[in-house]
Amino acid sequence: MNNNREDTICAIATAQGGAIGLIRVSGPHAIAYTSAIFNPFKSGKRLEDCAPYSLTYGHIFERDETIDEVMVSLFKAPHSYTGDDSTEIACHGSSYILQKVIQLLIKQGCRMAQPGEYTQRAFLNGKMDLSQAEAVADLISSTSAATHRLAMNQMRGGFSKQLAALRDELLKFSSLIELELDFSDHDDLEFADRRELKKLADHIEQVISKLVDSFEVGNAIKQGVPVAIIGETNAGKSTLLNALLGEDRAIVSEISGTTRDVIEDTINIQGIIFRFIDTAGIRQTTDEIESMGIERTFQKIEQASIVLWLLDATIANRQYSDLAEQILPLCKDKQLILVYNKEDLSYNPPTPPTNCQHISISAKKGTHIDKLQDMLVSCAHLPEITQADVIVTNARHHEALTHALDAIHRVQQGMDMGISGDFLAQDIRECIHHLSDIVGEVTTDDTLQFIFEHFCVGK
Ligand SMILES: Nc1nc2c(ncn2[C@@H]2O[C@H](COP(=O)(O)OP(=O)(O)OP(=O)(O)O)[C@@H](O)[C@H]2O)c(=O)[nH]1
Ligand SMILES: [Mg+2]
Of all atoms in ligand 1, which is nearest to the CA of residue 254? Predict the structure, then answer.
């Protein structure tokens, strides 16, 4: 990846089709390059001579032709988003104009920004830590009040401040223990108060395990509560998926075994994001590909928190008893809802087994889909989220925290068993390492590249 920080970069930061299009320029020559294609209308003052954090009205020109009338905002290092000199050119939102201005900037010496390069520079310039940078991407992609609140919290520092404070205290202990090791011929020397260290380790263990546990909720909030739609072939699973999503996402047909692979999509219902997973219908088959699909169906049941078991209401009792033995054990710790579909065809309402949540619908006619949605919302069991809630939503953070928790457990156990200082120091260092990883202090270039390449261009 070409991400030389000395380059001056440019990108269109707004989506296509709006009235205004914003071009961002950042880097050592941002102001000079912008100035070279910009003529201020009134003041006649060159951009270089304008006060920072000011807005200048003028036109972008190419030779003697005016390309657009624009507003240019000016930011001086280090007080800009990236921490470098930057300008933002607000143009009219024509894709022709925007491309033209980008071309002119490139002629001056700019290069196109990589995805996430502005935020990456902000991180590298110390404007934010890595978890805050990641929150910027989450904020842009937030699709519900809860994901928005969590991203906002994390962008403001979230748990990284708290973790940094705990890590600093651990660092103090680790250097004291290392000091003890330097004096190892004096066996009884203890610079690091073991009682204090134990207290700190217990406290850290508490904080981290709470964060680790919060990921289940965090992940459901961010990726959507996983809902598997399962049942025999032709029960109407794909029809139901389409009805829930309000679009023709999956192929529906009267041929058994239409869906062979897993189809997933998310939708926001009453503020909660659900991830619906349409699966291959379960039946005995000799078709190899269909069997593979059915195997996946069972995997998806395991990953789901809510299972919608679709039964064709006209033959529901038979379908239930055929599959109960296979399905029920997999749903023990999940919310299972029996969905009797095709109620429009059924004259005798089926008798659902007691102790099972159930509902009758017609996926095809859209009857009672709203009731099913209400049921889903009440089954989701997600807490009300405020901007003060500290919840881990990022898989990378979850992984680092899990490693940190393992290390701190070893510190606790080691102290209980009275192990020697050098082993203790090693576990403490490991815990510190994983805590530092979250805020990006020990993160490798590969990890950084992975994180930022998933950003949009212009952010
Ligand atoms: N009358 C009626 N027909 C329905 C209803 N829901 C689905 N169907 C029909 O049932 C047939 C099968 O529907 P699908 O949604 O493809 O069923 P599926 O469970 O996804 O089937 P596979 O993918 O083969 O496992 C289609 O012809 C649908 O139009 C319903 O509520 N009422
Ligand atoms: Mg299907």
Answer: 27
